[in-house]
Amino acid sequence: MQSFLVYILQIAGCVSVAWLFYKALLEKKTRVKTVRLYFIIAMVVSLLAPLSPFAIHTSLLTQSTPAVTDNLNGPVNDDAKGITRGHQVTVPANSQTGEGWSMVTTLFYIYLAITAFFLLRIVREGYSLARCYRKATKEKWNNLQLVWNDRYKASFSFFGLIFLNKKYLTADELDKVLAHEKVHATQYHSADLLLVQLMCALLWFNPFVWLMRNAVQLVHEYLADEGVLASGIDKVQYQQSLLDHITESRLFSVTSTFTHSLIKKRFLMMSAQKAAPVSKYRLLILMPVTALMLLGVACVNGQTASDASRVVTAVALTKANVVYIGIENPVNISVSGYPASAIKVAIDNGTIEGENGEYIIKAARPGKVLVTVKADGKTVRERELKAKFLPDPVVALAPARESSNLIKGGRISKEALLQAGGVIITVENADIEVPIKVLSFDLSVITNNNEQGASAVSNTDKFSTDQVKLIQSLKKDQRLIVDDITAALPDGKARKSPMSMVFTIE
Known about the structure:
The protein is of the alpha+beta class. The protein folds into 3 domains: 2-69 and 104-125 and 170-296, no CATH class; 311-389, Immunoglobulins (Immunoglobulin-like, Sandwich); 394-505, Immunoglobulin-like. It is 39% helix and 26% strand. It contains 12 helices and 25 strands. The strands form 6 sheets. A 6-stranded antiparallel sheet has the order 3-4-10-12-15-14. Strands 19, 21, 22, 23, 24 and 25 form a 6-stranded mixed sheet that branches. Strands 5-6-8-7-9 form a 5-stranded mixed sheet. Strand 23 and strand 24 (494-497) form a beta hairpin.
């Protein structure tokens, strides 16, 4: 998102440079064909300059990425995409992996909305042209196609199609209009217009791109007028035809029309002395313009990369890969180049407390937790974490030190029971140690006649003396029930557990 906005701004800067060079050096005493070629090349270079290998190479030369370390594998030295190893993620401070709403996000969506409006307008015009073409009568003429329609009064062309309306054209005017639109069609002026309209949709915020669009349209009319007069049509009669159609408006932004405005400039151009042939070499001005574009983009890229490498932010969960709801989730946060006291941290789902780089996250609901890290009031990092509920806890015998298997019931010997020494409540497959403490539990015997026998209570998580004696008195196939368990959950409150275990003595 941020990189895309930077790319768009770089294109806008290149277009601005191209327009200023045109106004300073090419607008006057330059052949219109040369000016048209300049605009086409300038627009293409503006789009490609931010992606050029030169700009990328220069930006890499200007950055100096310090070595950073993660919590498992020692020193590493990676680029702006960051590293994920174990439970820690280390990335440059200006990268955004989360979906959080920020000023950049707001600007991005505002930009997309306005750009979409202009793009949809182009699509709508294309649809209107296609619908008009389908309903019109077509006729071949000099490798072009005449489209006789009753919908539009003005005459205009779109690539090899010339749209005409017989109701508003006399026989004398038709020859002049066809000569004019033939130049537009054969020189593919619609391709220029389509490119400049797309540039306007992308760079609607840059006034220079709109000036460039108007200049391109005017250059097309100069070329068409030049072609008409070169075909032998009388200049005075042609100018009179233009005046007769001056009230017409431009129908489509991607078409070339006979009645384009700025008549005074066109009349002056028809009467002006032709530019000297040597003026075509002014197009060489594109070489320093291109170099300036590349240099400017490279400097911006280099500065951005350098700034990113100087500030490295680490957001590392210390005990799990996710944030669990209902418990405290420790997280370490640090920003290189800033003291811990200058760092402020906030989340959008729950609370986060702590200082000096060590924080505790308590998530409020399942879903996403966006961690926003600010240094000296400036957002330097946003990281998205996943929050979910803990799996249901289970009750089991305390496992032997040499075994990680939980015994939750079934057939067991008295020796194994005594070796366990007590019961636990734990969360399986949680990737985190959940502090649940057993406070008390009961042991009850079910005789072979399915009658309740003796029972004993423990006020800790270990078997009491009475419970040990009870276990030692058990006989084969008798059943032992562990129930009435009270435990202290992570919030510190004691609760009665509905869980129980049933063992059959071997």
